[in-house]
Design goal:
2 copies of one chain form a homodimer. By secondary structure, chain A is an alpha/beta fold. In chain A, 33% of the residues lie in helices and 18% in strands. Chains A, B: Keywords: Disulfide bond, Glycoprotein, Glycosyltransferase, Manganese, Membrane, Metal-binding, Signal-anchor, Transferase, Transmembrane, Transmembrane helix.
Chain lengths: 330, 330
Amino acid sequence: RWFHLCKLPGRVMGIRLLRFTSVVIIVLLLVAGALTALLPTIKDDKLPNSRREPKTQTQPALDSFTLIMQTYNRTDLLLKLLNHYQAIPHLHKVIVVWNNIGEKTPEEMWNSLGPHPVPVVFKVQTVNRMRNRLQNFPDLETKAVLMMDDDTLVSAHDLAFAFSVWQQFPEHIVGFVPRKHISTPSGVYSYGSFELQSPGFGNGDQYSMVLIGAAFFHSGYLEDFQQQPEAVHALIDETQNCDDIAMNFLVAKHTGKPSGVFVKPVDIRNLEKDTNSGYSGMWHRAEHLLQRSYCVNKLVNIYDGMPLKYSNIMISQFGFPNYANHKNKM
Amino acid sequence: RWFHLCKLPGRVMGIRLLRFTSVVIIVLLLVAGALTALLPTIKDDKLPNSRREPKTQTQPALDSFTLIMQTYNRTDLLLKLLNHYQAIPHLHKVIVVWNNIGEKTPEEMWNSLGPHPVPVVFKVQTVNRMRNRLQNFPDLETKAVLMMDDDTLVSAHDLAFAFSVWQQFPEHIVGFVPRKHISTPSGVYSYGSFELQSPGFGNGDQYSMVLIGAAFFHSGYLEDFQQQPEAVHALIDETQNCDDIAMNFLVAKHTGKPSGVFVKPVDIRNLEKDTNSGYSGMWHRAEHLLQRSYCVNKLVNIYDGMPLKYSNIMISQFGFPNYANHKNKM
């Protein structure tokens, strides 16, 4: 072995080879040691603040969506809803817009109850504004946003289906709550739901808005919203209302078509009554609906026209929940 | 007067003026007579074979549709249905494809019972073929075709709504009867309706075809159909069936999307039982459904692939018939 090598011509060469070989071996050991040091450490799941990377984390595109949920004074509902929404298929990430100014977020508690299916980011706000949820958050990686009010529960089945519908209508607000405006002979607009007179285009009713508190829309519209005239932002701040009406105006102007596509929900619930906070939503204020009519007319002034368009398309899921839900007498 | 004129210098000039004036008067009278002769004559409405031009006859574009109804051995149903369909809003013209070879059409009776809201054209066929209705009729002036089986009654409300839906999805077959294919481990396809196993893409069922016996589609697809491989025409002739499956293959290939959009009908009826002819439709033949599975597989061979795509979108009319048909518990 070594002696065999030493017999090679030139004792000098033999010693050089020996040194060379030793150096190579030492270098290899150092490299191996370095590689070992670079391996990711296996964290103990019970450590606070640990977050294990979900195995299925892929580059999000049109195949997943980001849930944006703004919350004020209903942390108990928020946490209940987060447990539900974190497991919706195709969800990429949750962004919680924390409007409880000066109050600590439940992030620590959230992390201590991990692991979670998706990352949840708590965005602490400095002012309690309705339009905080319409910021163009840098955390957003998906084309699609699902926006939910912090007291609204929609079943996973409904959300999975509505997301697939959004993918076929990506420039629209695809959601579960339709509303409309009507015009009156005086030229003044009024806002309402189905109890309000139909606009009178043939049979049945029409809707001209889909509320963003339970809807999918393209994340690009958040940037658009930031670009809107200052008067629009001021109106929303003045009323602490109407951000959804403004978004419908924006989308209708952008597409020249009805802003929304209404998907009829099978299971949608308002959990307001279940909160311990005693806080009931803004829509209970006496002036809520009058404000919304006011907003419609203000926005028409700001945009110098009425861009909202009517639709009477109502989408349901074929064969679900009842596999024969499309059956007819024929 | 004349004497006054005669006093003008030159007696010759006065006579010339007189002649000139006379000639002008005579010419004017002749012109007036000619104009009177060119006026349109007012026709008596009770004359046989007279057709008064409907006042609202405008250049048809995307705003109206042509009804194509093929008929065989059910003239009583045909006439009952024509009375209903002739009054559907936005109907431009009716084309009756007369498959009763050698039998006189009811055109004389039809005309004697005029006036009618729209023109009806009876296209006499030389051979009783299922695919006769898919000819590119020169009488077609509209972009949209409504194709109806001669035993199917769909309410005007449903048709008006479905037409408005077609206008939003003009490259699709928009209709009332969804069907699907499923693939099996052996690679052989099978045809069926909702009682057949769902294709297994998430919740609920899917459809991959909308039958053309009660549907709107773009008239351009008739020309496309004529251009299809001879094997397709031969298949339809061999089975006297499957023309609608072939059309769905055609549309799916053309769009790369699901061929159909299903509109859930409120009021659709099969009048088959009501016929005096004793003739019951082709779909009562024992081999009808087996033939359709056979057709699916043959078409896959002919087109070297399966172009049909699944959809689970079911469209209904918002607020009709029940103005609160979208209301939820929330």
